[in-house]
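Table 4 source record.
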Amino acid sequence: MLLIILITILSSVLLYSILKPNNYWKKRNVLQVGDIMFKFMIDKVSLPEICKKVCDEHKADVIGTSTGTTKALLLTNPQDIQAVLTGDFQKFHSRGFLINQNDLLSDNLLFMNDIQKWKMIRQKLTPVFTSARLKNMFYIMDRCARDFVDLVDDNPLLKRKPYTLIYTYTTAAIGASVFGIDTQAKSTMDSPYVDMIWKALSPSLKGSLTLLTANLSPTLYKFLKLKFLGDHEEFFINVMKNVFESRKNDTEKRHDFIEICLELKKQGLLKDSTSGYELEPSDELLAAQAFFFFIAGADTSGNVMHFALVELASKPKMLARLHKEIDEVFEANKTDELAYEDLDKMQYLDMVVNESMRKYPPIGIIQRVCTRDSVLPSGVSVEKDVLCMVPVLAVHRDEKNFPNPEEFDPERFAAENVSDIKKYTYLPFGEGSRHCLGARFARVQVKAGLARLLRRFTLTEQELKPVVFEKSTFGIRSADIFYDLKRRDF
């Protein structure tokens, strides 16, 4: 009944916002198009695709639109993108996600709007992703990559759904990196978090309605005390509390996220010496940061691996070159061991991963809300509360930025070519102060997984071309594409 009422209210609000006269952007001499949220509701494609279509049709650096009752801009000009993501951060620090204080996970995530709280948490979490820390943590990721390849080997039925296998790896690897390796489990792939994160990230009517309510009627969203991640709150926070209790007297160095959390809890009250801002490292706060790793990394890293394999399946020369590079690294070691430093030797693998993120960006839209009136380098005035959207998929597939953008070409990222890429036209992890904190972790996870997988398996040659993606607000996802993994003959 509640869903029916909510759908009725949202439909009425959206219809009103569409039908009422609205020349907001036209009056400011900005090209104006129809409401993109309405297009998202009636189309069967992702919001990044809708934004790309709008940008392709109009070829304008700045396009005025709306998302329900919120005025919005689509920005493709690199100078404007730089201003929003980096140059004018104080006016564009907010990601624009409306969160209720009773939403214990969402309200404590790194995409929160409270800038002081965000700065404090980001400062304390940054050490998790240094090269030194990742090197110490690599034994966890490599163990997960080994178990992942064994999972592929042992589950012929699951090979019919290769994305499920890859998603299991990325989720389980994050779980092991957060909570440590469960010595009682036969395989790290037997993770209790896979199903939970799959449900949290899979597109759903409830999730779409919650997001629409936040965009169309913030008052209603607040009144109903809606939560983005409420279904997982009790389970995940209890897991964290139990792990904290079991590990509080543990002296063994594990180099996982729980170790960082325990160090923060020992410090007590966190304080910013400059502003005097204080923050209690509560179980709920730390649980939210752990949950954030899953939310930010499981689906995105899985998609990077997935689309790389989709492309390699139809490109035997690229695949053969990659096999050769991976084989040379393993054979030089004269064992089946893989070290953190070995990933740096796989330069072509790095190029393939970069091109996968170019053609299929992990996040197809980056958004920021203007918190104080501003003027973009292009001369467009932006009032407070206007939503600035960077359509990453459109930017990455713009021929002005990448010639032959529909072609999968890892050579764009060769050492001699990478300097030709314009700044702020390649944004797989965002840019500026709010760029993805786990970018290094993601690269290590993806490269370790692909290196292990392509050491043991190859791909049957077949032409695979994703035409449209799943209906999603930010992500680029096509989980049903099938490619055939088969054992290599050495």
